[in-house]
Amino acid sequence: MKNIFDPKVNEETIQRINNLSPDSTPAWGKMSVDQMLAHCSVAYEMAYTDKHPKPNGLMRFLLKTFVKSGVVNEKPYPRNSRTAPVFIISERKDFDVEKKRLISFVQKTFDYGPNYFDGKESLSFGPMTTQEWNNQFYKHLDHHLTQFGV
Predict the structure, then answer these.
(1) pLDDT in tens, 18-50
(2) What does the pLDDT read at residue 134?
(3) Concatenated DSSP letters for the chain?
(4) CA distances, 137 to each of 41, 48, 79, 92 (Å)
(5) Is the overall model pTM greater than 0.85, yes or no?
(6) Sign (positive or negative) of CA dihedral 43, 44, 48, 52
(7) Above pLDDT 70, what percent of the chain?
(8) Which tens digits make up the pLDDT trace of 46-83?
């Protein structure tokens, strides 16, 4: 798995996002490119904002027990895999706004660096290692950027 805290990987990821256009179409799935950008930002919103509520204790137990390993491991997501309801973006978005917002989150993550994430609590999964945060962020972005051919 590539390391989002590596300057070259950070630059490459931002360049891939910049290679998208409002006319980019997915190789699979139903999201438009603007929806995909907003969808990818949800993971960062959950890490940096209070926009999304913390799941209750039972739901967190279920997420940690049955979902976490698939999110933080190094195995790529399968095409057309299901997503959590909070990640569903049903309305169209402003492409330029969402692109800038996602790039800002990617850069903020790089700027904070790996030490910031060591032991940082995930809303859904509890405390995670830097490697788990890396895998979660990079794997999700790579999945969707590949979906849109960049």
Answers:
(1) 999 999 999 999 999 999 999 999 999 999 999
(2) 98
(3) ---TTSHHHHHHHHHHHHT--TT---SSSS--HHHHHHHHHHHHHHHH-SSSPPPPHHHHHHIIIIIHHHHHSSSPPPTT----GGG---S---HHHHHHHHHHHHHHHHHH-HHHHTTPEETTTEE--HHHHHHHHHHHHHHHHHHTT-
(4) 10, 13, 17, 23
(5) yes
(6) negative
(7) 100
(8) 999 999 989 999 989 999 999 999 999 999 998 988 88
Specify whether the CB–CB gap between 40 and 122 falls below 8 A.
no
Residue at 6: amino acid letter? D
Q: Look up residue 35 and give its two tokens.
A: 């929806």
In this structure, are residues 2 and 9 in contact, taking their beta carbons and an 8 Å threshold?
A: yes
How far apart CA 79 and CA 101 sit, in angstroms, is 25
Q: Which residue has the tokens 């049903």?
A: 90
